[in-house]
Task: inverse folding
């Protein structure tokens, strides 16, 4: 049906994903020739159909215009005609375009109905847009949901031109979304603060993330691979720095990944009951800082969108106030409540790091148990 | 109806009235119309904010609808908030009960408002809540906990092609609004 | 009305207190050009940062302030006031009226604009910076998460709205009540028709924008929750209200441009406009349809499928009357005897490039495909084709066309042609590659981008600097003409120009048509 047409259309403009200077939309077909998603290929086919119709009409209209510019010029000595109306012609070029539009509307309608076919999914994932990262939560029928945050992984050095940019500059994350191949996945999309929008071009899914409301979208990805996208609704300063990275893997790999992730999360939770060494805390804290704090607070704690941490009264003062800022955020500013986003071990580590790095040197050590006690009040 | 002898002023007066009317239209027509259409048709996934009074209806045992529950916090809301079950299978017409847990981890008394949202949005008008913690604000003292009930019925008229309904609650911190202070950000 | 038979006052007071439509038209045009340069400066910052991947020149937050102000200044400060300036200069002369219906309100309509834009520009210096939420200012980014300057932004929008509404009321009152005897509606130049219809659109929708920003003000300062889910409101409500204004707004921008082209192409084809009545009906059809298509700006927001389909069909329908207009313009050229002075070059440029913008608009109207286009550079390319190559080219054509009549002096034709070609080439180098990067996956409103978009972005930035530079050439040409241009010898100026304004001297006296002219007995179109 439209798929066959889509495949034929793609023969005219073969393109690789992530290709340099790509001029057209993703075809929905991978470099190797495998269909990525049926819906993506169908959308691409529809896009090309409308495009070629426009090209045909354009050739007609511009052809007549260009001919006229050449042939009907005063310098050629022609005398201007004075005809100035013709009802039949007006009717013709009202009715014929209308018919062409109806012709376009039919496949457009059927494809749109496909886009809305969200039911009968095998898996549900809650996608939440935050300023400026995504949170993914796998909904589990038994209530054992599993959630994690996905932050931009490109370094500030690359962004500020002191390091060469990697191949996936601005399109790489620390924790990608992983889904199994050939599985109907239903995305439930919302936002934590302002409106965001979740988009992966190659799987042709885009839906706005609206705070307080839930939207749904679906996909069935048929080709394993890595697919990258970005936030597509202006959401504040770092709108351009919250990419989407989706890994589509075999069922076996997915199960292994999920088990490993849950295991790591459990290990992390177990770690919270232990005491870590100062070095371990600071090393871990630096990683957390770089992933979650650096963009606003600077590589040297010098500040930027956020306040300076170097020499800050909060980072060098009472622990409770410091933890308050990190755990609960600061209402009315872009400082979020990281208590909900970082594990207790990570909060302890980053607090320790901030209190000892950037020349702060308080010598304080914060353990996960301190964070837990703080949270309990 | 002439508003003035001078035809130009007459035109001006009429157009000025149209302008004012269009401004009023936004508040008096567009907003209520949007809310009415959304409430009536569930267009944006909003469910009613009032308890549904159920008339006795037959339970349709031939259909099973999967209802998923999502609990999420809005920006700056620190409460623990989760559903007792993440999904349940229900029959249209049957009354169902479940519970959401909330815990205030801070030492201060706070007030929360849960805002429901249903997906697919066209299922919202068929999702009736006979009792819901979202109808009212939820106060919790410092370190307080609560079990918040939800009772609902899925209407038998739910379109045949809908087999999964997702009900999401977003919890907002409305403490500052309730204490009479204007929310300032 | 007029009891003064002396010329204009002298000095600054002349301009401050003038109620003369020619003076006010001149002020609108100069003000709008200044705003065009200001908005263009913001665009230069944007394109300079986007010249290469990586952050080189500005911080991301400031970049967003630039994109926001670029949009606001161009839409509300440059393009809209420029066409109001044209309306002021031309409508009374075209219909044989001595002035606008309400000359003093006309003065206020203009003079509240500079303070409004001063206030808007001053937000750059305020704590928290200028508005950075895009010219479309969606809630809650523009309410709960907005910088303190948002309140001044709201006041500025209110003032601009009042200016537009007053100006539109003036235009309608003038056209409806002050046409010279014998000038029936169907004998009016098409430029007057397009402005009449535009003015009705403005009166209907500017108050809606005022309502939207008032609701924002209430949410921000008075504890309401129109757009906040927490209080039972809905951020999507904002989008519906905004675009209910926003879609008619883009037709408000383009309809007067259509009117200008409808004056210029017949003049340089030495042939009457083909299908005058159809052109009137098509304009009215576009205006009516513009009220029922707004949600095509919101296809990804989560609307139910029935709504999505309705808006898709209604939007596709607008292609019909728009196509009718394009066909009529081409048929006007057909079998004419054309010459290609600068106004005609810009008009033909309009015809080609606006039509391309129309095609991408048709592509965008297809809802399922729009899921891949929405909020990408494909949209940015589309609207710059219709707004710059459309409205701005049309305005430029208008200036070259009527400047000799307004000033009695001819501009330098060679410089005009150079301006056209550099503009045309620069424009296309800037915006054509944006179709590609948008389709390839580059979102809008980002200060930095993935490496595969680098080459086209560099190209686009180079084009932007070329296009920007050419506007300085335009400025020079206009000033040179006014100051030292060759005096116009023939009242008609252009061989094929038709209309009452061409029967007046060049430049026309301060007051014209104090006695209504005799309208020749010719059949209504």
Result:
């Amino acid at each position: 049906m439209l798929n066959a047409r889509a495949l034929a259309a793609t023969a005219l403009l073969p393109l690789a994903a992530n290709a340099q200077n790509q001029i057209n939309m993703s075809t929905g077909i991978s470099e190797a020739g495998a269909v990525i998603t049926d819906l993506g290929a169908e959308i691409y086919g529809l896009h090309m159909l409308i495009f070629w119709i426009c090209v045909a009409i354009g050739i007609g209209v511009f052809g007549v215009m260009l001919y006229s510019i050449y042939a009907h010029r005063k310098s050629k000595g022609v005398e201007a005609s004075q005809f100035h109306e013709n009802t039949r012609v007006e009717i013709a070029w009202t009715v014929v375009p209308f018919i062409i539009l109806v012709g376009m509307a039919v496949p457009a309608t059927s494809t749109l109905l496909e886009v809305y076919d969200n039911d009968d999914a095998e898996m549900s994932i809650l996608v939440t847009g935050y300023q400026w990262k995504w949170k993914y939560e796998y909904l589990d029928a038994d209530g054992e949901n599993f959630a994690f945050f996905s932050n931009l992984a490109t370094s500030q050095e690359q962004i500020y031109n002191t390091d060469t940019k990697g191949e996936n500059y601005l399109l790489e994350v620390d924790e990608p979304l992983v889904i199994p191949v050939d599985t109907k996945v239903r995305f439930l999309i919302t936002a934590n603060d302002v409106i965001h929008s979740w988009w992966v071009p190659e799987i042709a899914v885009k839906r706005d993330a609206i705070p307080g409301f839930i939207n749904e979208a679906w996909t069935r990805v048929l080709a394993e691979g890595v697919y990258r996208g970005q936030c597509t609704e202006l959401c504040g300063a770092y709108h351009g720095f919250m990419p989407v990275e989706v890994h589509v893997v075999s069922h076996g790999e997915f199960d292994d990944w999920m088990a490993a992730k849950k295991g790591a999360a459990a290990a992390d939770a177990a770690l919270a009951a232990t005491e870590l060494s100062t070095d371990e805390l600071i090393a871990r804290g630096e990683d957390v800082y770089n992933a979650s704090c650096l963009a606003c607070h600077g590589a040297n704690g010098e500040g930027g969108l956020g306040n300076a941490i170097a020499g800050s009264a909060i980072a060098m003062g009472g622990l409770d106030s410091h933890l308050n800022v990190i755990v609960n955020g600061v209402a009315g500013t872009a400082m979020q409540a990281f208590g909900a986003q970082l594990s207790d071990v990570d909060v302890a580590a980053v607090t320790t790091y901030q209190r000892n790095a950037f020349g702060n040197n308080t010598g304080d050590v914060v353990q996960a148990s301190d964070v837990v006690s703080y949270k309990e009040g | 109806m002439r508003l003035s002898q001078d035809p130009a002023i007459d035109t001006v007066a009429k157009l000025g009235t149209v302008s004012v009317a269009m401004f009023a239209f936004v508040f008096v027509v567009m907003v209520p119309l949007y809310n009415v259409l959304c409430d009536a048709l569930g267009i944006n996934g909003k469910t009613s904010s009032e308890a549904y009074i159920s008339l006795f209806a037959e339970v349709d045992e031939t259909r099973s609808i999967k209802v998923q529950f999502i609990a999420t916090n809005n920006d700056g809301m620190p409460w623990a908030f989760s559903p007792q079950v993440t999904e349940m299978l229900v029959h249209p017409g049957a009354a169902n009960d479940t519970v959401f847990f909330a815990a205030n981890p801070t030492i201060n008394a706070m007030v929360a408002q849960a805002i429901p949202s249903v997906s697919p949005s066209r299922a919202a008008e068929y999702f009736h809540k006979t009792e819901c913690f979202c109808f009212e604000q939820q106060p919790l003292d410092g370190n307080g906990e609560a079990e918040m009930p939800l009772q609902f019925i899925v209407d038998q008229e739910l379109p045949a092609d809908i087999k999964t309904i997702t009900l999401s609650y977003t919890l907002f911190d409305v403490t500052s609004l309730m204490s009479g202070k204007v929310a300032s950000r | 009305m007029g009891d003064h038979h002396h010329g204009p006052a002298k000095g600054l007071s002349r301009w401050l207190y003038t109620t003369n439509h020619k003076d006010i038209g001149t002020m609108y045009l100069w003000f709008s050009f200044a705003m065009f340069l200001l908005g263009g400066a913001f665009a230069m910052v944007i394109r300079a940062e986007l010249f290469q991947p990586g952050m080189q020149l500005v911080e991301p937050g400031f970049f967003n302030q630039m994109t926001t102000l670029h949009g606001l200044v161009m839409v509300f400060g440059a393009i809209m006031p420029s066409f109001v300036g044209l309306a002021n200069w031309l409508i009374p002369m075209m219909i044989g009226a001595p002035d606008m219906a309400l000359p003093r309100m006309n003065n206020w309509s203009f003079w509240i604009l500079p303070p409004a834009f001063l206030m808007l520009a001053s937000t750059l210096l305020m704590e928290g910076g200028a508005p950075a939420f895009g010219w479309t200012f969606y809630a809650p980014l523009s309410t709960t998460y907005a910088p303190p300057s948002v309140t001044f932004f709201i006041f500025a929008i209110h003032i601009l709205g009042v200016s537009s509404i007053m100006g539109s009321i003036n235009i309608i009152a003038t056209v409806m009540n002050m046409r010279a005897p014998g000038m029936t509606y169907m004998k009016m130049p098409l430029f007057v028709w397009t402005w009449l219809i535009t003015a009705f659109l403005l009166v209907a929708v500017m108050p809606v924008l005022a309502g939207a920003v008032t609701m924002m003000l209430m949410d921000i300062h008075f504890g309401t929750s129109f757009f906040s889910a927490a209080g039972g409101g809905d951020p999507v409500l904002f989008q519906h209200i905004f675009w209910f204004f926003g879609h008619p707004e883009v037709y408000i921008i383009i309809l007067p441009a259509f009117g200008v082209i409808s004056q210029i192409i017949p003049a340089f084809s030495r042939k009457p406009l083909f299908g005058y009545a159809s052109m009137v009906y098509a304009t009215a059809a576009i205006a009516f349809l513009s009220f029922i298509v707004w949600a095509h700006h919101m296809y990804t927001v989560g609307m139910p499928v029935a709504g999505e389909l309705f808006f898709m069909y209604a939007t596709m329908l607008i292609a019909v009357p728009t196509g009718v207009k394009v066909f009529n313009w081409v048929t006007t050229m057909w079998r004419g005897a054309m010459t290609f002075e600068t106004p005609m070059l810009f008009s033909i440029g309009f015809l080609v490039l606006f039509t391309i913008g129309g095609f991408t608009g048709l592509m965008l109207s297809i809802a399922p495909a729009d899921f891949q286009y929405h909020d990408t550079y494909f949209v940015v390319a589309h609207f710059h084709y219709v707004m710059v190559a459309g409205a701005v080219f049309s305005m430029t054509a208008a200036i070259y066309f009527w400047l000799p009549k307004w000033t009695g002096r001819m501009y330098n034709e060679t410089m005009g042609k150079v301006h056209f070609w550099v503009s045309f080439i620069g424009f296309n180098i800037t915006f054509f590659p944006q179709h590609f990067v948008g389709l390839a996956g580059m979102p809008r409103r980002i200060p930095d981008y993935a490496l595969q978009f680098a080459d086209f972005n560099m190209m686009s930035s180079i084009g932007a600097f070329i296009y920007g530079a050419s506007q300085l050439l335009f400025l020079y040409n206009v000033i040179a003409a006014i100051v030292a241009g060759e005096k116009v010898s023939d009242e008609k100026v252009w061989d094929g120009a038709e209309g009452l304004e061409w029967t007046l001297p060049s430049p026309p006296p301060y007051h014209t048509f104090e006695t209504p002219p005799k309208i020749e007995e010719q059949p209504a179109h």
